[in-house]
Request: fold
Amino acid sequence: MRKKILTVVGARPQIIKAAAVSRAISGQFNSELHEVIVHTGQHYDEAMSQVFFNELGIPQPDYNLHVGSGSHGAQTALMLDGLEKLILSERPDAVLVYGDTNSTLAASLAASKMHLPVVHVEAGLRSFNKSMPEEINRIVCDHSSTLLFTPTQSGLQNLLNEGFKQFESERYSIDHPGIFLCGDVMFDNSMHYSNLAAKQSQILNRLQLDNKSPFILATIHRDNNTDDPQRLKSIFNSLFAVAEKTGMQIILPLHPRTKKMMAQVLEADLQQRIEKNDRIRLIEPASFLDMIQLESNSTLIITDSGGVQKEAYFFQKPCVILRPQTEWIELVNNGNAILADADSDRIQQAADVLLSKNDFTWPAFYGDAHAAEFICATINRYIG
Ligand code: UD1
Reply:
C-alpha cells in the first residue's frame, strides 16, 4: 500500500518548495507515496498563493483551512485546531512541512502531539536571532521532527550543535530523529523552471526591460523592516541613492504586508517621492516564473527574503541583504552577499562593493538539484 503523506503549506515560499517534492511524488515515487495537500490559508491573495499552484503544476490542495491573517497566536491556534481534526480524519503516515512559517509551526506541533512522524524540509537553519518569529518556528519544528532534511553544511552543523546525531537506523523516531544533508529543494526548482521562465514569462516585456539595460531587483517583506517606520524609511532612502548613483531602475515587487505598512507608516512626502521616482518601480507580487526571470536578468539583488538571497546565488547575482544576520551564512562568507541591515549607508556601500567586484566564485553550496528525489526515497525507506 502507498504511504500517505500529509503535506502542509500556507505561505508563498512553502507552496514553491512543495512543488519540487510533489513533482517527485507524482512522478518517480507514484507507486510508493501518496500525497494529500493541506493549505492553511495563511496566504490567501491570488498573487501570493493560487498563482503558484497553477504555474508550477502542483496538485490543488485537498483541503484549505482558510485561516487568513491574524496575530501569531490567533493564526497559529486556528491552524492547530484545523490540522488536528484533519490528521484524525486522514490518518496519514507522516506530516511533511517546509521552512519556518506559522504554518510549519502549527503542523509540526499538531502532528508530533498526535505521535505522528514530522518530516521537516529545510531543517537546521538558524539566524541566532530569536526575535524573528521564524527562528522560534524553526527550532520548535526541528525538535518535534522525526526526519530532518537540511539543505546546507551549516544547517547540518547547527543540528549537531543542538544535540542531534547523525546515525544509521531502521527506526527513526521523535526521540531518535534522523538528520540528512540533501541540498536545497529551491535549487531543484530554480534549475527545473528556469528554461520555462525564459520561454513563458512576459515580465521583462511588460516592464520594458528587454532592451538589456541593467536593472536591480529588490524585495522587502520582513516584519521588522516593514513595521518599523525608521527602518522602512532608511531602506527607501538607500534605494533612492543607489538608483541615482547607478542610473539603474530598481524593480520592487510589493508583498501585501509591505504595501499596507508603506501606506500606514511612511510620511506622505516620502510616499509621493517613491511614486514619482521613475527609477523605483513598484509592481504587484511576482509569480515564480516571473520572479526567476527577473532574478536571472538582474544585475544586483537587494532583499530581506531568505529565499531570494539564495535564488540570487543560483543565478550568480550578487546580493545586498537587508537584515542584520542570515541563515544562509555561506553566501556572506564566500563574498557573494553582504549583510547591510536597514542602514542606509551600509546598503549603499554594499551595492558599490558588489557592483564593482569581479572575482566572484559560485561553489555548489546547495546540492545537485536532486534534493526532492533524495527526500522522497528517504521518506519511503523510513516511514510507515
Ligand atoms: C510569512 C512568514 C515568513 C515568510 C513570508 C513569505 C510567518 C511568521 N512568516 O510572512 O517567514 O517569509 O510569509 O511571504 O509565518 N497579507 C495579505 N495577503 C496575503 C498574505 C498576507 O494581504 O495573501 C498581509 C496581511 O496584511 C497580513 C500580512 O500580510 O497580516 C502578513 O502576512 P503573514 O502571512 O502573517 O506574514 P508574512 O509577512 O507574509
